[in-house]
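We both want to read discrete structure tokens more fluently, so let's practise on a single case. Would you supply a protein for us yourself, any chain you care to pick? Would you write everything just below, so we can both look at the same thing?
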Amino acid sequence: MAFQTNVLRNGEWVTETISVQSIVKSQQVDAAPQQQVIKAPRCGLLTRTIVESPFIYFILPVRIRSPHHNDIAFIGDHFVQVRELRRDGRLKDIVRRVNFGSRIRNACVVGDFDINTSEGQDAIDFQPPIKLEDGQFGFSSRLPPQMLMVALENGDSLFMFVRSASNGKPEFVTTRFPSPKQGLAQPGFHLAVDPSSRYMALAYAQDFFVVYELESRERLEEKHTNGEPLQAPVRSFRLRSVNGVIHKITFLYPRPGDKNHIILLLIVVRKRHSRMIIYEWKLGDDLKMVFAEDKHGHRLPMENQMPLLLVPLTVQSAFIVISPHHMAVCTECLHGPPNFETIEMSSPPPTSTHHGRGSPIWTAWTRPFRLASYFETRDCIFLAREDGVVVYFEADKDSTVERVTPMDSFNCNISTAFACVFDRHADVLILGSDSGPGGVHKICPRVPVEFLEALPNWSPAVDFASTNQVSEWYDADKGKRTAQKGPLLRPDRLFATCEGGQKGSITEYRYGMKANVAFHLAFEPGIKQAWLAPTPDGYHIVISMPDSTSVLQLPSDFSGANLLGANDTFYELTSSTLAFSHSTDQFTVQVTTRKIVLSGPDKYRCFPYDDFPVPHGGSVSDACIMGDCIVVATHNSSSNEFQIDVFKMELPHLGLGHVRTVEVEGEVTSLVLTQDFTLFVGTSSASGPAVVRCSLQQATNSLTTISIPKILVEHTSIEDPSSVEAIGSIVSIDNTIFLGTRSGEVIRVTTNPNNNIDVSCEKFGITAAKLSLTHVTGKSNPVVLVCCDNNLVHLSVNPRSKLLRKSRVYPIDPSNLVEMAPPIQYASAVDLPSEEGITQVLMLSNDTILLTELHSVPGCVPRSIPLGGTPNKLIYSNTLNCLIAAVNYGNKATLAFINPNSGQNIGIPVDRNDIPVDFVYGLGKPGDRIQSLSEWKYYTTGGMYHYLLVSTSAGRLLILSTKRDKTSGLIRYWMRWKKEFERPVYSVVGYQDGVVFCVGQTIRWEKLNEVDRKLTHLKSFELESPATTLRVSNGKLIAYTTKDSLLVLDHTSPTPSLSNADPMRRNGIHMLEIAGPDPSDKEGGITLVSDRECGVGGLFTPYQLAERECEVVFEAELTASIRKFQRARSRPVWEQQSQSQSQSAPKYGRLVATSDDAETLGMSLNGALHHFAALDLKTWRWLRFLQNLVAEDGRSSNNSNPEPRADNGLEMQVDGDILQRILDEDDEEGALERLVGRHEQRFMQLLQEIDGVGQIGDDRNKAFGVAYEVLEYFLRPVL
């Protein structure tokens, strides 16, 4: 259909014929462009605590194992650590428990212990092991005299003691008594136990308290002997309210002869006045009747209002009231108005360790151990002040304080963790600190205080830095994942700042086994090996030098050393010692390059090699000793061939005979003889390194050669087997041999029952890996010590999964935590008396001989770098290769450039004329504080310039220049540009040719003008709260604020605009970008954010879409807020493989977090270190399934459904601390199998879905084997 109409063409009306279709088409509106749809990734988050907080709230001496163990309980927010005071004054770790399900609010000791000297021995002289009976519960034959009561924040009370488990290890036995009333604020805020330990009072933070009547120890012992189930020792309880707020609560001592008299004292604040209320009753009285009366009590004198401490005295039912500026003894408090007698004492002035604004306050008291008869007529206490002052008080039988003795001040702060521990001849004070390290001190009569050991503490930790070179998760320049290049990647180091006034420091996080140095002796350079042999009057140290041997004689207490000459010893000193052994019956064997020396208690014999059929003129290169056999390797220089000669000894007669000769091809580089007399010889030839196996039990030499390159190609994924050099050392454990190569690898070859072999190869360094076999005290399985690259590593085989457990060993001086671990070139266990869990190890460090005590349980081994001021910001500069800390000395802020190895401050502030000054211009102002510290690489046409950006609370923005002196290594720094504002500058970041910073609640962009060299203001953007973290990513500015969480700003236009924001208004602390499920997508990252409510969230930001909220991918809850996130390739060196190797690629659904696959770590204010790993949905679902099973394990009703639900919230968190309980069950078979139980089919189904698991089918044994492997993969140490 068509018709004619008039249309306007070129300004004139004309008549045209048009169709209906053309009219309709012209009326159609163009469709709006389709909006791009971007979906947020789906993933989970694995969180776990890798270093517990070192902060200690209470230190309680408690006989928690037996009357004969001098134990001390160290109690923190979430852990109880039992340690034992040894005879040498050192603390030994016994057992530790974490994850109580709630925060620990308070703790006390229930039970009594008196020192008994009637038998002529004290509690330290006799320490027998606890014997286990064949009872129903496997308990020890008797209960310990004391228990530990822990009050949790949820109101539950835990009663704990320690017994020996079936495997001989100590374990906690715990009973729980639930809270008598729910919903009250902070149960356990106050806690006290009466002197008879028959009653316990627990007060809430406001106006309620509860008194528990406890079972007598005799009744508990009777139940235990009869095999009755162990329950909480609570007979009854009574809840009582008071009119006011409970300020203090304690029990007073009854008068002599009236032990059944119970006296409870409360200090209640009512209408701004403190009143003392006393309840008293007889043992066994009805508590309902006792607390039926509402008492008003007596008002405390004005000078004793709101006391800091109450100290009950053992005489006259009196107590000491300690206030900030006054002390008094309260007597006659049971009948009539109490009498307060002032204690006259001149308070010592504040010490240098005090960093508060007011006067230091008294924080804790402790009562030393004395005989029971002493406390019947007298009493004594130690009173501690927060700045390190300790005062000794003595009271007579009339409760009169007759002696007040201020002691020497201690060089640390003292918190509420303060205790006096029993010692045979002295008082041992253990001082816990809430700011910096504490210490253990011995106080003997009429001699100065002796410092025994430091008590590590790096809280409060306010900032955190790593040596990682990648500052962004995505390399924007290359647009793809990158990795560090080099033959071997070294682990990044981690540092944290610890505030503490003049005790402020930088702490380096180190994880491994500690080896306390008990004895060290400087000798000559060139030591190859050393052995320790006991003698009737002490010890001999046999030292092998390159061409000789030296022998040192030591007394039994290691108080000195004498070098023996040739006429003073029977040892061969003119040649190098290759092997050495000694037996308990004083027989020794020395094998040198020239002869073999056998010695007995009263005679010795030497056997030159020329007396035997060995190649004349040949040289002995290696040797080993096993039982009565000696094996030596000889090189024939004329034929350039090697042979192995075997000798048999007759030690009672000091005889030696040649048994056989074994000829091998190639150069002999190492050898070892096993207990079943199988000889393993490491050889090197043109075809590469090899291991030759020969059984000496056979009549003929039947040799089996294992080619190392061949087995590495067949059984491992190593790319270049030719890079593996000769075998330098060999050790054997059962059917497994460990080979240490000269190129730093450790190869493990295990022969299965079906004669197949399993091979693994890991690189520990670039120098030779020296192996030695060690037997740990108290354990049946031997372990291997590896020395490589001046580091010492402890290897053990997991008896359950057969995987290798590897831990770095740090030799330390417990009294000096400043020094770095010394380089170790050789280590071997020595035969010395040792306690269970401690192995005596002889180590060689350059020209120094160390005798150490190796502790078998790995943990944090911190190193402290003192600064003499208060640090609050910290970065590591890869340009300057040093730490840069913002430090306040007094009330003046400056920078410290710290050499991380020596701990020295190598920074020199100068002015623009290069003249040294105290502070650079703009710093050192009284009352100022550095708020932000970062680096800025400024690129211009003339090159790149390195600047430091510093902002302060006084509103200063400073740009500093640095220059390193190539000769001295010192760094000179000076101010280049400065701007001042009226509000604090909270954060600053350099970007291209300018800087972005937050002044108050305003973000400002300023550009560095190359012409006039000044900062020029470009634009600004107003916020509703300050931004503490700024970062530029994907062309957008990301700001993390204190009240509005994450904000993404588009700053490409002259007027910045808000592009994206967190839908939840978090009270933000810090943020960090990590990669998403697709690491190749630079616009698909996830931002980790932390808040002040102990939460961590994962936010996906759609950078391409403006005016759209971020999407929450996951949420997590922790025990403490994350103060700062950090990236670090912190895993040990044996895991720092090249990214191109397949074994280093992420496995089992672990998602990479950064371009170099670094770890994501977070530090809390309490010093705890947390690890975060993103998981794909399949792995999250299986791990969360296991977590739900662990959470419901042990409940009375286990009918809940453990199936996970993907909700983009807290359900997406996998708590690794909960999963760790599966691996911590003492390696018992069936821990995971028992947990899974009736959910086994679903367990195997979810496991099968994980990437990289492979085919499992219905093979149950294989499924659980793989499950343990996956768990150990995710829960292995990251330090």
About this structure: The mean pLDDT is 87. The chain is about 5% helix and 45% strand.
